[in-house]
TrEMBL record:
GO terms, biological process: trehalose biosynthetic process
SUPFAM superfamilies named among the record's database cross-references: HAD-like
Species this protein is from: Ramlibacter tataouinensis
Family that this chain belongs to: Belongs to the trehalose phosphatase family.
UniProt lineage: Bacteria, Pseudomonadati, Pseudomonadota, Betaproteobacteria, Burkholderiales
Function: Removes the phosphate from trehalose 6-phosphate to produce free trehalose.
E.C. no: 3.1.3.12
Protein name: Trehalose 6-phosphate phosphatase
Pfam families, per database record: Trehalose_PPase
Length: 247
């Protein structure tokens, strides 16, 4: 089944960013937004009456910068921040991350291949350039999180990320689904990572469909081979739906 088959005017579309809309890159700032992607998102958002949101581990301001001039409804930092379709910003309560940050920074000081990303409400320790340090990073971050009340650890693609226990992509999607223009629609969520599984489970509980991009076990009912395949489907869906709207 293609994305175009899944979408009708009464659908709500939720999209992950890294590994779904854009290819994974060696560093967080090295991702490339291919030509035409912004136009496809804009056209589909229009077709869906504005019920299209980005659900990312990145801060919303980074998503805005990558997709400018588009400014979509969005959840950032794995649901720790959310901007509604009306532009209202909601922040999930965060917990002290000083200990996690100190542990991550100390590790990275010993090996320049490690990278610490400090976000509002989360600390990410990237080991993409040092895959041999995965266990060291996991052990250190797990221990640091155990000593940080209210904080949980996510294992993403070559990254361990400490974030507020009360925030998740599933919670963010559910919050959107209680508000216009998402309320009453059938949700579709497309993502690629283990961190997206809670989003797939959430939309499927709400009678919607999860779509997993790439390989790996998943609870999602549908699968697309790669971000490149997904972008092609997005473009095709945007073109087909725009044609229908014009007819
Ligand atoms: O939820 P997402 O939109 O998929 O964001 C998840 C994380 O994406 C970024 O890290 C990942 O992508 C980088 C660029 O491709 C890659 O270098 C890194 O190894 C990946 O983990 C971002 O830096 C994180 O803040 C996001 O949480």
């Amino acid at each position: 089944m293609t994305l175009s088959d899944l979408l009708v005017p009464s659908s709500a579309l939720f999209l992950d960013f890294d590994g779904t809309l854009v290819d994974i890159a060696p560093e967080p700032e090295a991702v490339v937004v291919p030509a035409g992607l912004v136009a496809s998102l804009e056209a589909l958002g229009h077709y869906l009456g504005g019920a299209l949101a980005l659900i990312s581990g990145r801060p919303i301001e980074q998503i805005d910068a990558f997709l400018q001039p588009l400014c979509l409804p969005a959840a950032g930092v794995h649901g720790a921040e959310r901007r509604s379709a009306a532009g209202r910003l909601t922040l999930v309560m965060t917990h002290p991350l000083d200990h996690v940050q100190a542990v991550a920074v100390t590790l990275a000081a010993d090996d320049p291949r490690l990278r610490v990303e400090v976000k509002r409400g989360s600390i990410a320790l990237h080991f993409r350039q040092a895959p041999d340090l995965e266990t060291t990073c996991r052990d250190a971050m797990e221990a640091a999180v155990r000593e940080s009340p209210g904080v949980t650890l996510l294992a993403g693609k070559m990254v361990f990320e400490a974030k507020p226990g009360g925030a998740s992509k599933g919670h963010a999607i559910e919050a959107f689904m209680h508000e216009p223009p998402f309320v009453g629609r059938r949700p579709v969520f497309v993502g690629d990572d283990i961190t997206d599984e809670v989003g797939f489970a959430t939309v499927q509980r709400l009678q919607g469909i999860g779509v997993k991009v790439g390989e790996g076990t998943t609870v999602a009912w549908e699968r697309i081979a790669s971000p490149e395949h997904f972008r092609k489907q997005l473009q095709a869906a945007a073109a087909a739906k725009s044609r229908k709207a014009d007819a």
